[in-house]
Every structure is written in C-alpha cells, then in structure tokens.
Amino acid sequence: MSDIVQPRVDDAFAELIEPYRKELRLHCYRIVGSLADADDLVQETLLAAWRGRESFEGRASLRGWLYRIATNRSLNALRDRARRPQEAARLPEPTRLGEPLWLEPYPDSLLEDALTAPPGPEVRYEERESVSLAFTVLLQRLPPRQRAAVVLCDVLGFRPGEAAEMLDSTPTAVKGLLQRARGALETSWEGASAPRSPRERELAGLFVNALEAGDIDGIVSLLTDDAWLTMPPEPYEYQGPVAIGDFLRYTQDRRGVALRAVPTRANGQPAFGCYLPVQEAAIARAYGLLVLTTTGEGISAITWFRDSSIFPYFGLPRSL
Fold first, then answer.
1. pLDDT band with cut points at 50, 70 and 90 for residue 82
2. Cis peptide leading into 233, omega within 30 of 0?
3. Which of 55, 182, 262, 304 could be stapled to 273 by a disulfide with Cβ–Cβ 3.0 to 4.6 Å?
4. Could you tell me which residues come within 8 angstroms of residue 158 by beta carbon, excluding any fewer than 6 positions away?
C-alpha cells in the first residue's frame, strides 16, 4: 500500500515546489554570479527540500523556506568553490587591473519567467535594475553574507527578521550587513539605463554593423568618453575610446578577420553571440558573447565574455 501511495505524495510535492524553480535560479545566480552553478544549486535546493519535506510544518511560507535553503546552498558554494588559475593573455596595456570577477551573463529569455513574484515591503531596487549587469557586478564585489542580505532584503523585499531566519542570524546582525553593503553600493551604483529604448536599439544596430564590417573606428564613435571594456573573469579593464579602440584593433589584427554576430539579450541589455569565421571550413565557430550598456549619449560599457559554453543558455548554436 505504501509503495503505491508514496509516489503520489512525491509527485504532489514536486508540483508544489516546481513553480519556484525559475525564480530560485535567478536568486542563486545573483549570489554566485554563474548561471551553470545556479542551475546546480537549484537542483540541490529542490532535492534538499524534498528530503526535508517532513520537517516543513508551515511555520514559514513555502517560498521563504525554499529561499532559505537556496541562500545557504549558495553561500556554501562560494566557500567551497575552487577556481582554476587564469592564463596570462597577451593584450595591450590596460587602463587598470581589477580583481578577477567570476561572472556570467543571464539570458533575458530566462528572466521573463523568473520575475513573477511581487516584491516584498523592503525592496529598494526596481526589477530591471536588480538584473542589470552593472548591478550584478557590484553584488559580486560584496562579501558573501552582505551579498545575500542585499539580495534577500533590497532586491526581493524580505524583512530583516525573515532574512535573519534564512541566514541563521539575528535581525540586528542582518541590519548591520545591510548597512555595510548599502554603503559600498551607494558609492558606485548609478542606476540602470533605459530599457529597450529607441536609442538603445539604434546603438545596438550601429554597433553590430560596425563589428561585422571590422570597422573599429565606427565602434569607437559610438562610445561615451568614460566608457569601459571589461572581460570577466580576467582583470584587464580599458577606459575611454582611445584605449578601447587600441584593444579592439589589436584583437582584430590577431584574429585576422571580422566577427559575425547574432543578436540576443542578457541581463536586460542588448547582447551579441560572436562567431569567428573559419574560411577553409566555410563556417563560423562560437567565440564569445558581448553585452552592451547604453545611455542616451552612447555605449558606456562593453562586457566581453569569452567562454562560449554559455551559448546554449541563450539558444545560440555552436557554429554558423
């Protein structure tokens, strides 16, 4: 009898927690900065929830209980995660060397189903701000527990008391984490650019035309005076049209060919899957993903992700 009933109970529980999968993936991504790692963490979270389902007695909301598990799994992953050393790349002299930043872009196609829950009373950032690449970068520069506190309270809107339960802490300690994190964020955060504006579409179109034509001067003409080019996780950072232009010319000369590009979107911003043509094979192979940050004045940031393993998340093919 129990062998017959148990699968039905398990199926019912799976149906109960499945609606939270997509928002939990975004939550884990905000903390760990990696979409692949976030996928693994969500699987761990749902498995842990299933195994501990008998201990859940409705003393907290099901959503809050799942976020508690996901948050702690993410923090554990940050402590345990080992990163491979980076090979020194031969590149032009950068404007500065930043700290290595372990970050991947997040497809807009996944965001559309992850931002469904209404924000809680403590929310401080709009949805489009909280998923932007610039904000995600700032989050990754915070210590892990400060990062988790900001995501739980300022992004998702949980009260400090609720966040304290999720972090196995106290409301006073969470308020201290928030105070320190907010101080760090407020010195750097300038807000997100206007979403999907006609100017954004215009800049993205001009950029991709220049990119595929190998017209570096055309790309440079679209940049703001204080624009940045970065390449997570590598520390090289280039600021200003001159430095960025020198970098783009150098890399294009090394490739010997202009890139092909397929438009997509990442973190609420225009992006392009880039492909390197292989003339003898008449194909173009996946090469990396570019994400643009735009303002009314022009392109203010280019973020270059050289790991093409993220292409399947964007529905991009391995080759053209």
1. low
2. yes
3. 262
4. 64, 67, 120, 122, 152, 166
